[in-house]
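User: Show me sequence and structure for the first protein, then do the same for the second.

Assistant: Starting with the first protein.
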Amino acid sequence: MEYREEADTLGTVRVPATALWGAQTERSRHNFTTGPLMPLPVIRALLQIKLAAATANRDLGEIQEEKAQLIIRAATDLLALPDDELQRDFPLHVYQTGSGTQTNMNVNEVIAHQTIKYDPTSGVLPNDDVNHGQSSNDTFPTAMAITARVAVRELEGAVQHLIDELAVKEAAYENVVKIGRTHLQDATPLTFGQEVSGWVSMLEHDWDFLKSLDDSLLELPIGGTAVGTGLNAVPGFATAVAAQLSKVYDQPFTAKSNKFFGLAAHSGINVVHGGLKTLASDLLKIANDVRFLASGPRAGYNELNIPANEPGSSIMPGKVNPTQAEALTMAATRVMGNDVTITVAASQGNFEMNVYKPVIIETFLESADLLTGTVSGFADKLIHGMTVNADRMAELVATSLMTVTALSPYIGYHASAEIAQAAEREGTTLREAAVKSGQVTAAQFDQWVNPLAMTNRDRSMD
């Protein structure tokens, strides 16, 4: 491999000849070699920040028109690259300095070297020009807020899609009666539509929680520079940058925020990820319900039929497994673990700056991406094609002992319990045991024990 020499304040470094990065990136590439690469959404957000900063600095008379145009052109061309091509010049890992300085400098260096392609005499410098009026301490958390906001909005769309798919099932099966279960034991009947309505409401609440929280990601710490005082950033710079970023992302970002808070704390990301954790908890419950109700087909509940998306076993022919539910539950457990990581990392805002920034945003984006993908798969590849086994549901209702609850208002709790116990003990139906008890007639039993009526499906909830 051929190399060129690049220099920084620590000396000279050999850099691969074709690489767009410079000395600081090369040092980091060797000093920090562990873990995943910095997420590309963060890189793209930093490129947008550099583009907006060059525009603002030009308009405010802080850098020359020629240099500004070169920086704008370089950032624009880099942003136009597909992910696989863009990744080539951004080789740094998440586990680096806690401020994200190496990644910020990676972006600065790549833009500066890109300008040389247009004009070998450009004179654009990574620190003095591309990073003008900025610090890693304010650009990186600005990128964090932007990428988190975008990721959450995408997740909200996936959750709404799942709600819509479940609502179809709720309506389709509003009159299909099944046995309810509490404590994993038989309970009174409900319709499958009612059961699904509970899932829908859970997700609607989760969606509302996220919507109520995600505006906390609109505050951008840009303009705070090193410690929040705004040293070396001219008046109007932060507002101009935030305005351009708002147009690019079609989001109402604002630079009107406490910069000391923006550098030292990541409360917004922390609280929003709490919403992701809550969503994950509810998704885990829903997915578990679906896969247990679909268990069988001969030795399980067998109340639901799920799509056969792929062979379920490498040894057992004809097996169908709830793979989409399993993927979703695995993602949910990962998100719960990620919430602990973010909670601890967000607490480490020592003095003027939190130094866990890269792991906070990488973890947040992983959670959002996992949920967006698995929720979409669960909706499209399982819920959409799911049907009920109505005969099996009717069979379980007919043989359940807990429909005896409907007799309690007429003959009392104690007498009703004796009937259920007798039916269980003697292996008879509840109806046979009730008539044999002498407490009710066959006609009374048929009138009072009406599973569909017991669901109160036409009654509005008080």
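Switching to the second protein now.
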Amino acid sequence: VVYQRIGNIPGVRSASIVSGRNFFSGSGSSYGLGFVLLDSFEERDADSLSSEAITQKMFMRTAGIADAKIIFFTPPSVPGFGASDGFEVRLLDRTARDIRDLDQVATEFSGVLSQRPEISYANNSFSTTFPQLMMEVNIPKAKEAGVPVSDILSAMQGYIGGFYAADFSRFGKQFRVFVQSKPEDREEADDLNSIFVRNTQGEMAPISEFVSLERTYGPQTIGRFNLFNNVTLNGGAAPGYSSGDAIRAIQEEAEKLPADYDIAFSGITREEIASAGQAGIIFALSILFVYFFLAAQYESYVLPLAVLLSLPIGVAGAYASISLMGLENNIYFQIALIMLLGLLAKNAILIVEFARQRRQHGLSITEAAVEGARVRLRPILMTSFAFILGLLPLALANGVGAVGNRSIGTGAVGGLLVGTVIGVFVIPVLFIVFQYLQEKVSSKPAVIHSNETKPNV
């Protein structure tokens, strides 16, 4: 049914469905998983054929299937960190209450998250309504017949559940041997009459004499995280929102949970939160080292501020560019910001250094600033626009890794363009202000005469 509904979506090449297992909860008779192959990127050049758009269409096509919970997701960006690309959060029961209460809270929590605009979907694969059979061993009767309880459990494990027995080598390969009865011999409860166990007298007795089955309902598996019973919730951010926005929405809703419940992030979401505070430290260290280098070069603690205070213009342009293009503030954009700081500082250093030299040759502060901007305008424009043109392929990238390439290219292009165009007017003004303050706190720089000046006779 699922394949019939998604197979004719434009951009979908094929799909394969496997029963008995899923990505989040492992194996189970009520689980299933599938792999959907899309057409190549060359054939999906339109925005309506992107993986995000196709995923939304598949959600819409399968929303009417009431007998199953069906979600579609892309693989994790970093293999090994979680089962899907998106957030992974654990709902923890800190007081070990009834497992049905945990199921109810998890269902309500995932429903609340799905209503948030920052979250595209939130899935909870945990359920206490799986049909099961509870086995009860009549221990007094087994002891009376001389049948150890451990033998009864071992026989049930071998015939029904199966277990690993041995290895054997053949045809140059090693094969593993598993013991288990055939599926048709373990379908009904009456099949227990065909399973026998040996007592202490060496006689065989049907295992159904000591075992009774009761139909019940319960969870397929019960997971534990940090020693607490937990339910794993997976989901993804809605279009136009970043993973950080989705994490903040989860944290806001988690504050409304009952007192006995809490959340803990896992997978790549946990790593993202752990490294979230490092970006500010890296930027602060970058600016601090630039300040120290410039202070040593200019022999001043004031004049480097003319360079540093020109950087926010380009940074603001970078944020505005990714906002206009609908991109996220991700790790790729943060790499572009660090690169952008060096490029913008280079432009400011060219103007400030030349203006400083003109000031030492006797020009006024204003004349030196204007002369520095005029003389250095051509090399600044040439290097900046050459770099911008070189980054256009990244900003207009398609195919594998297009989002990361666009984040780097768009952030660097937009920031450098705005910082260059506006900076050539702002940097001279900053030089005038801080050079004036420098001369207020220290003496006026000595005038350096040109060697071409003729000596007086």
